[in-house]
Records
---
Amino acid sequence: MIDKERYQEILNTQNTEVLWNLFQMHMDISKRNFIGSLKIGKNIIPGFLINLHEGYLQGRDRSMPEIKELSSFLEFLTENELLPFSKKELQHYLLKNKKFSSDNSNIEKNGSELYDLISKFQIKLNNFQIN
C-alpha cells in the first residue's frame, strides 16, 4: 500500500518543479531563445517521472519491492489512478517530448510545440487530486 499523503506531498513538489521549468521555457521563447527552451524542456517530463520515483523511494523501508524500478512504479501509479495519465498517455508524452527535443530541423516550431505539450501535461497535474 502506498502512503498517499506522502505521495501527494512529493507529487506537489514535483509539480512545482514542472511549473517553474515551464516558466523558464516561456521566458526563453519570449526572448526567441528556442535552443534554450528546448534544452530546458527536453528534461521536464522525464525528470518529473524520475524525481517522483526517487522522491517516493527515498527514506522508505522498501516494503514494496514491486515499485523499485521506475517502469514498475509508473505502471503501479497509472493502474491505481495515482497520476492523471494512463500508461498510454505517459508513453505519448515521452515520445512527443523526445521527438520535439531531438529534431533540429525547425527549432522555433519544436520549441513552441514542446512548450505546448508540457503545458498540457502540467495542467493535468495541476488539476489532479488523489482520491
---
Amino acid sequence: MKKILSVCLLIAGYFNSSAQETKISITGSIERPLGSFSSTHTLGVQAAVNFVRSSDTSKHHIFQFTFKAGGGYFFGRTVAPADYPYTYPGYTIIYTGAGIRFEPVNRLNGSLTTGPGISFYNKTTRFDWVSNLTLAYDVSEKVSIGPRIQMIKEFGADALWTAGLQVTFHL
C-alpha cells in the first residue's frame, strides 16, 4: 500500500510542476460487460478524471503522458435457475492508472492506461489491476466521444472485460 501511495504522490508532483501545462477532462461512460462477466451483470456506468501533460502547447505532440482516476458500478443480473429468482450483487471498482495518450491527427486521439484498483463485490474487497484502451473523436473543442475497452484483473481470478461508449468533457 505504501508503494502505491508513493507512486501516486510522485505522479501528482509531476502534474503539479509549473514547467508544463496539464489538461484536465472528465469522462462518463456506459459499459457492457463481456464474456463470463456478462452472465452475472448487465450494464455499468463509469466516471473518470483525466490529466494530460504537455511540455509545449504551441506544438502538436503525437505522444503525451496521461494519468486517470475513476470508478464504476455494474448492475447485477437477475436469473431464475430452478424457479427461484436470484439477483447478483452489484460490482464496484475504483482505480487509478497512468499511460500514454496518442494523437496521430487533430481531433482524433486514444489512450492506453494501466494501474491499481480496488473492487467491492458481495461484501468482499479485492485488489485489482485495471487497463483501459480508449479512442475519441473531438466533436467540438470541449467534447469528444468514442469507444473504450476495459480489463479488470482480480488476483487469482479470470479477467473481467467491458466495452463501452464514453463522452469526455474537456475543462
---
Amino acid sequence: MLAYITHLVTRNNPLPQSRKLFQACVEVSKLGCQDKILQVYFVALKVLVQLLNAPVCGSDVSESQINKEIQPFLGLLLNKISELNNRARDISQATVVGVFNHPALSMSMLVEEVMKVAKCNEQYKQLFVPISKQQPRIILSRLEVFL
C-alpha cells in the first residue's frame, strides 16, 4: 500500500474519489501504529505522512474529516514519544511535527491530547496519577512536541 500511495504522490494526478483511498490509508495506518513490532510501526507512520499529501487527501476530503481521522493517532504517537526507545521516540516526534504542518489540522487537538496527562477525568478518578507522582520523562517528552 505504501508503494502505491508513494507512486500516486509522485505522479500528482488528482483522483476523482480520493475519500475512499484516504479512509483505507487511515485504517491501515491505525492498525500498523498499534503494532508492537517497530518496523511495522515505522511503515504505518510513512503511510500516515503520505495520506496527507495531494492525491490521497484530495479536494473531496473535508477538513473536519481529516481532523476526525487524525485524532486517534495522537494518543498512539504521544505514547511512543514517551517510550524509552530513542529511535521510536525521535521518529514519532518528527511525524507529529510533520503531520501538524498540514493546514487543515487543528493545533488545539494536539494541545488537548498533550495536556490529558495533567487532567483528571471524572469517570476514572481512581486511575488518575497526579503529575507529581508521574515519571518525569512522560511529562517532558509530551512537552517536547511544542519545541
---
Amino acid sequence: MKSYSKYLCGFLEANIFFINNQLQDCLNKLSTPAPQGISTNFAEFFALNAAGCVHLKMNKPSLALLYYNKAIQKSKDLTDELAADWGKDLKRAEQTSVHSKTNKVLLNCALSHYKQGYYSNAWKLFEKISSDNINNFLFWYRFGTCGLNWFVQECENRSRKVQISYQRKKTSWSNRAKKTWNSTTNMKATTQTTMTSCAGTSCKLTLTTRSCRSRS
C-alpha cells in the first residue's frame, strides 16, 4: 500500500512539474517504474500518454505521436488484461473506462497532427471521437478550425498544381515557338542562298552568250 501511495504521489508530482513548465523534471519522474501490485500496462499507459503531452508542450509533435501510439497499444493490452482478470460482470464497465481513456489519447494524437499541419489526419481522429465529446465546446472549436484549415490547405494545393501545370504548358509553348522560329529562319536563309546562287548563274550565262556573239 505504501509503494502504491508513493507511486501516485510521484505521478501527482510529475503533473505539478508539467504545470510549472519543468518539463525535463516531469519526464524524469514519469520514467519511474511502477511498484509491484500495479498493472504494468496500466502504469505505462498513463506514463506514455503523459510523456506525449510533455513533448507536445515542448513543440515536438512528431515525438509526441510516437508516445501516444505506444499508449494506445498499451490500452489494448490493458483491456485484454482486465477482461481476463475481472471476469464477465465487470468486463463491460472496465472496457468502457479504458475506451474513454483511449479516446483522450486519440484526442491528443489529433492535436499533434493538427500542430504539424496534417489536417486531414487530425480531422479523421476528431471525427472518430466526436460522439464522446458532444458537450465539449473546446473540442468542437478545434474540430471546426481543423476543417477550415484543411479546406484552405486543399485550395492552396490545387492552386499550386494549376500553377505548375500552367508553367509546364507555358514552357512547352515557348519551346515550340522557338523551334518554329528557328525553322522559319533557317528556311529564309536557305532561300536567300539559293536566290544568290541562281543570280550568279544567270550572270555567267549572259556573259557566255555575249562572248559567242562577238566570235560570230
